[in-house]
């Protein structure tokens, strides 16, 4: 009898590609109805996405070129969690490296699974409160400060398309709507 919590049975797994950062596997499977199938699974390590909020309430986005889609996009600072590193440590490192910003207060905004059918990774979302510049941003990255209304406008106009950035921004904006900061700001 098939487990309803795991309706697909894996019958074989083969590694078809490996690099320093990524491994791709082919999985032969049997679906709940008995039909055979196959999944490709990408193992690429966990990541982080960070919304930096300044002391005056501005939200910090970046504009960066993305090779796979061949264009610049607006998104939040993001990157990988290195071996032996905790997600919060990675978030602090990535924010500093990409934007030159640091923050003393951090909160979790949850997690997302970017493409769970084929990508075995979790992206940890963080809010960096009272972010302030402490060094220059990484070359090739433009740092933008926007208010909440502008951020919503960018989202509704599909100018922010990075999935983890959308999840982090919307989580923050919805929390702020339900629990506005002291002083109504």
UniProtKB/TrEMBL annotation:
An example molecular function term from Gene Ontology annotations: hydrolase activity
Names of the cofactor(s): Mg(2+)
Leader sequence segment: none
EC class (word): hydrolase
Pfam family, one: NUDIX
SUPFAM superfamilies recorded: Nudix
Domain Nudix hydrolase per the UniProt entry, residue ranges: 41-168
InterPro entries: Nudix_hydrolase, NUDIX_hydrolase-like_dom_sf, NUDIX_hydrolase_CS, NUDIX_hydrolase_dom
Keyword annotations from UniProtKB, A to Z: Hydrolase
Enzyme Commission number: 3.6.-.-
Family: Belongs to the Nudix hydrolase family.
Protein name: NUDIX hydrolase
Organism: Dactylosporangium vinaceum
Phylogenetic lineage: Bacteria, Bacillati, Actinomycetota, Actinomycetes, Micromonosporales
